């Protein structure tokens, strides 16, 4: 049995290009980037998750944004570290993934 779960998502061509650009910039695969984002998101408290998902009522968005910024300033927002022990499956923090696309060289 695999130590990874596979998910499939549909994104716009613009989002795909933005993801490709970020992955090329940092030399990582889309799988690694997505895995890190998912773990960071799952580690956040429910208020920040709701803000990121855009599911807060308009009436409270400004107050929640201020509250989140205050939490960040106080160091209360969780930072994701691939080396931190996890109760779920351990995340592999390698950027060397078999079958990784070669980086696009910019000509100049």
| Beginning-to-end CA distance, first to last residue | 46 Å
- Low-confidence spans: pLDDT under 50, at least 5 residues? 83-103
Largest sheet: none
- Overall structural class, as computed from helix and strand content, comes to mainly alpha
Supply Rg: 17 Å
Number of helices: 4
The average pLDDT score comes to 77
Q: What is the string of SSEs from the N terminus onward?
A: HHHH
Helix percent reads: 40-55%
Report the sheet-strand fraction: under 5%
The total strand number stands at 0
Q: For this entry, what is the oligomeric state of its chains?
A: single chain
The shape, in one word, is globular
Tell me about this structure.
The chain has 108 residues and is mostly helical. Among the domains are: 12-43, no CATH class; 44-78, no CATH class. 45% of the residues lie in helices and 0% in strands. It has four helices and no strands. It has helices at residues 13-26, 30-43, 46-53, 61-73. The radius of gyration is 17 Å and the shape is globular. The model is unreliable at 83-103 (pLDDT under 50).
Task: Draw up the topology in text.
Layout: H1 13-26, H2 30-43, H3 46-53, H4 61-73
Characterize this entry briefly.
The protein is an all-alpha fold. It has helices spanning 13-26, 30-43, 46-53, 61-73. Among the domains are: 12-43, no CATH class; 44-78, no CATH class.
What key attributes describe this structure?
single chain; 108 residues; mainly alpha
